[in-house]
Amino acid sequence: MIETKNKIRSTLSKDGSAIILCFVLSFFVWFVNKMSKTYDDSLEFNLKYELPEGMVLREKPPEKMQVKYSGLGWDLLKTFFNAPDTDYNIRLSPQDYQTITGPEIISKLEANSLIDFNIIDINLQKIALVLEESQTKTVPIKAVYTISLPDEYHLSGAPELSPDSLIITGAKSLMPEINNWPTINFNITQINPEQTFEVALDMKDDRNFQFSILTTEIKIVPEQLTGKSIYVPVQIRNNKQSIKIFPERVMVKCQAGLSRYDELGSEDFVLEVTIPENNVENPSDVATKLEVKLLNSPSFVRNVQIIPPYVEYFIIEGVDSLR
User: Which residue, of 80, 190, 216, 218, has the fewest CB within 10 Å?
Assistant: First the structure.
């Protein structure tokens, strides 16, 4: 048994170099065969637009282009080690409307030797462009946010933005409709006394604008709410006769932030009841209760309640004849 193992080991040691040589030759033949075949591949190009001075594109143009091509394995291997230039420059004339077709793009790719292969297809059949005179405009930034604070908290005021405006450059015809520019929606959840964070502007827009800034800093101040009760007089609509209501003042209960608690007064609320026309004309047909409606209240109060929500009214007969 030991003698047999020694014979095998001796044979392998003598023929090892031959085995390795056979393996290398086999791999070489396989590799040459594979590289001699035709393969399909694709390449992504960056589209660069050269515009006449003082002109801009009205809408955002395509920024990328996929080119599908075929070639021998040897040629494709070269691109792996020596990547071609993937910037495709488009020089535009001063004309307002221009269209670049797919065949034009392929012809330019082949003429400029940007791809030394057989181009099969590109993902753009045509590029339609509209050029306009450029214009700049300064507009305020609009904070877009949702509040998810506990019920007993709110914001003491509107978010403070820094900077609170930006300069937009774009097509002249689009500028009249741009009055502000929104941020992306952000959610306010923390109840820290003061918070400052950076928020990006909303760039989901097909119009081709250039912005002086892409982010803004936002400061918010959450504060705790506290309850307050105020007696407010009730106004009467359609009071064509000597009509009295009871009570003439009702209680308004609400919640306000501590920072504005003391400034909140009865003059900040407007309450009203409406006398039905039929009751004014027919005093005998009198409803005894009217709903008190809230017409106006400060923007910084929450959970407004009117107590009582209804008032009674009655007509004082003979008052007009005594005047």
Answer: 80
